[in-house]
Amino acid sequence: MSLNVVIFGAPGSGKGTQSIMIAEKFGLKHLSTGDLLRAEQEKGSELGQKIAGFTSQGNLVPDALIIDMLANVLDEQPADTGFIFDGFPRTVAQAQALKEMLAKRNKGVSIMLDLMVDEKELVERLLNRGLTSGRADDNEETIQRRIQVYHSKTAPVKDFYKQEGLSTDIAGSGAIDEIFARICAAIETV
Ligand code: AP5
Ligand code: MG
Question: Which residue, 28, 131, 134, 139, shows the most beta carbons closer than 10 Å to its own?
Answer without folding.
Answer: 28
